[in-house]
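R.M. (postdoc): so does anyone remember the format we settled on? I'll just put the structure tokens first.
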């Protein structure tokens, strides 16, 4: 019996360690700040929405779901080749689920996330009421290994909070690419509360983790 218990504890510890190892870093989240302002002679870049994407991943005890979001529009401004300010809008109606097949739960989950299911409009993103989310840059800071800490106000469902996360900014001719590694945010700070153990009691194993993992890849071209 003792041997069985020790094996169980070792397995549990292994799962915990593996989960921590695989978990992306959480973005630093704080109150909204004033948007960054560019110099009058700054260079503008327009976001290429067809080649820009935000990948997302959600977690629950029985597994994960993942998908994509597309951008609606966006403008960045640089000075001496360095990103200074900018904004982009996220088309929340573009949300897709990539890990399920059509006819096998894909459409149902996408409808639930968008809030197009009667009686479930506010479970997740309620896109009829909040069709876009927004990000406005509040600051940048150079890091080691060519990375930049990008800070900005993220607005989702009418809730605005500042988040900071590392990105790599690559300039090539008239093109600019902004890429992040996967990072997480606490969805409940933006009123996305469905299935959250920190909001609702007695969920058992029917909960959904508060953390949402995001990864951005945004291409822009000199305007």
């Amino acid at each position: 019996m003792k041997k069985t218990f020790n094996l169980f504890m070792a397995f549990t510890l292994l799962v915990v360690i593996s989960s921590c190892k695989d978990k992306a870093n959480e973005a630093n989240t704080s109150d909204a700040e004033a948007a960054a302002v560019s110099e009058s002679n700054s260079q503008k870049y327009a976001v290429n929405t067809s080649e820009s994407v935000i990948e997302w991943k959600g977690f629950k005890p029985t597994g994960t779901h993942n998908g994509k979001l597309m951008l609606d529009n966006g403008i960045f401004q640089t000075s001496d080749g360095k990103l200074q300010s900018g904004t982009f809008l996220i088309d929340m109606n573009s949300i897709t689920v990539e890990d399920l097949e059509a006819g096998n739960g894909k459409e149902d989950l996408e409808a639930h996330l968008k809030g197009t299911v009667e009686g479930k409009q506010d479970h997740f993103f309620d896109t009829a009421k909040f069709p876009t989310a927004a990000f406005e840059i509040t600051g940048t800071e150079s890091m080691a290994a060519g990375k930049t800490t990008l800070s900005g106000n993220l607005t989702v469902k009418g809730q605005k909070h500042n988040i900071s996360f590392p990105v790599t900014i690559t300039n090539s001719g008239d093109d600019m690419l902004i890429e992040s590694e996967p990072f997480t945010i606490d969805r409940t700070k933006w009123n996305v509360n469905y299935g959250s153990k920190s909001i609702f009691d007695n969920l058992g194993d029917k909960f959904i983790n508060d953390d949402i993992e995001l990864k951005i890849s945004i291409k822009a071209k000199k305007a």
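R.M.: ...and that's the designed sequence above, right after the tokens. Also worth knowing: Confidence is low (pLDDT under 50) at residues 2-21. The radius of gyration is 20 Å.
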